[in-house]
Backbone:
């Protein structure tokens, strides 16, 4: 048989295809650094907030694509993080609650880090990644090594340490005395001691992340193993505990009170909330409604805490640069949900309104994302899973959990590209509020999941003419409601908010 000539170009292509099917190709796989920040809304310099002092997040934005219309899928910690890690809406999984148990509801779920581990990555978790607390233990099975945990609720000021051995929120986040929270004392809502950054958990998490990056670089050089490291920071979650130097960066008089401190006109009652989370701290009144002086202190505390966490993120980014790992590391910064600072009279999250659901999202993918770019593509937390998989050259996720996210890579290449025309999110109360957010409008449907023929309550807001959500327009703009209803109807029927986890056979092993 005659020997056929193979062109050098074809030979290289064949070798590349062979390498892609072997572990040798791991040398070309990008590392993944996923930075999660608790309760962080886009109160950042790179999002145009003139009051924010966030130089480190801003420099990450300078080499990233900024998503200006990014939204969480449910404005509370555990469900939001499940959405990120599963690529699934809570209305697709039934994981609506703080105490929802992932492995009881979906025993065989393959999470974002597990997907990467299945393709040769070492996956690590530092700080608050999954939600641990309120009866939830997170998901240690998602990572190659045991997660590095630290505190969420923390005091170092001696005056606050001596008030009580265990406060309400400390009990929630350490899974203690969950049946008797109301009998426990309240902790302080803020403190500003003169201490080092590592006096608080976020400082310690940043230091551990730096150590892990050094170890990851050595591992990569020795055997080519790429890393997936998720680093979760607790501030600006309450209490607003941060070293004094970060409070001193801000003039509280430069942080005005919200323009509107009342619920939207004609909004259904079910759309509102109490301020129970805030009221678990002193000296907040039992009503959860702080006076003007305390409101100003709280806003000051939120911005000071954001500057504190920005400094910790800066330490991690510095290590990445010093180790010369920027060129082959994809970096994502994500806030798990937004935060009310007195707007509508509300504090913290737990609503379907803009301030509770809009989040910061920055993605830096070397060779893909244009530096210092921005897009108004409506985006959801569930989109991050398929996007990272594609960026890393891995197969797109297929479950077994429902995959609701879409791949954002076309947008990362071209910020004017569109892969969806709205974002979707929910919040459960006595009824389930399902919402869609387009570039201009938000429509919210309030409906019992188990009563299909009941009357529905609607909300409609126009952010072009009414960015403060001062007036529910559903009754006066029926044609807009009807058009958005058609979009909402494309989403699957939501899982019941009363669904119980499937029964496990008596002889079955725990997950």
Residues:
């Amino acid at each position: 048989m005659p020997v056929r000539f193979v062109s050098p170009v074809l030979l290289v292509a064949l070798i590349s295809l062979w390498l892609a099917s072997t572990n040798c190709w791991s040398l070309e796989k990008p590392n993944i650094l996923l930075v999660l920040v608790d309760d962080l809304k886009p109160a950042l310099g790179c999002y145009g907030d003139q009051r924010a002092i966030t130089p480190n997040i801003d420099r990450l934005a300078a080499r990233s694509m900024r998503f200006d219309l990014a939204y969480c899928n449910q404005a509370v910690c555990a469900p939001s993080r499940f959405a990120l890690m599963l690529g699934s809406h809570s209305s697709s999984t039934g994981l609506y609650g703080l105490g929802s148990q992932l492995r009881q509801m979906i025993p065989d779920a393959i999470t974002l880090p597990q997907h990467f581990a299945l393709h040769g990555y070492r996956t690590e978790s530092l700080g608050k990644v999954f939600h641990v607390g309120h009866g939830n233990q997170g998901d240690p099975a998602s990572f190659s090594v045991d997660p590095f945990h630290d505190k969420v609720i923390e005091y170092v000021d001696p005056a606050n340490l001596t008030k009580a051995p265990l406060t309400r929120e400390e009990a929630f986040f350490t899974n203690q005395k969950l049946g008797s929270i109301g009998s426990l004392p309240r902790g302080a809502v803020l403190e500003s001691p003169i201490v080092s950054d590592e006096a608080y958990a976020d400082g310690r998490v940043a230091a551990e992340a730096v150590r892990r990056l050094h170890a990851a670089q050595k591992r990569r050089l020795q055997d080519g193993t790429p890393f997936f490291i998720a680093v979760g920071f607790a501030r600006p979650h309450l209490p607003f505990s941060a070293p004094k130097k970060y409070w001193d960066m801000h003039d509280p008089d430069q942080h005005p009170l919200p323009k509107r401190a009342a619920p939207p006109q004609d909004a259904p009652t079910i759309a509102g909330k109490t301020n129970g989370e805030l009221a678990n701290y002193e000296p907040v009144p039992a009503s959860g409604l702080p006076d003007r002086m305390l409101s100003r202190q709280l806003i000051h505390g939120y911005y000071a805490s954001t500057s504190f966490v920005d400094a910790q993120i800066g330490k991690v980014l510095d290590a990445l640069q010093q180790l010369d790992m920027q060129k082959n590391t994809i970096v994502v910064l994500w806030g798990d949900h937004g935060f009310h600072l007195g707007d509508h009279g509300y504090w913290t999250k737990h609503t379907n309104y803009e301030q509770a659901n809009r989040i910061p999202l920055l993605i830096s993918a070397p060779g893909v994302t244009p530096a210092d770019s921005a897009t108004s593509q409506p985006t959801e937390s569930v989109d991050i899973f398929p996007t990272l998989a594609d960026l890393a050259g891995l197969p797109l996720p297929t479950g077994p959990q429902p995959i609701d996210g879409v791949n954002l890579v076309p947008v990362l290449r071209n910020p004017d590209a569109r892969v969806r025309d709205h974002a979707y999110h929910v919040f459960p109360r006595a009824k389930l509020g399902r919402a869609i957010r387009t570039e201009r409008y938000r429509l919210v449907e309030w409906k019992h999941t188990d009563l299909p023929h009941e009357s529905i309550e609607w909300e409609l807001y126009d952010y072009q003419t009414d960015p403060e959500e001062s007036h529910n327009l559903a009754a006066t703009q029926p044609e807009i409601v009807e058009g958005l209803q058609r979009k909402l109807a494309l989403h699957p029927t939501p899982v019941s908010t009363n669904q119980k986890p499937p029964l496990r056979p008596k002889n079955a092993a725990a997950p």
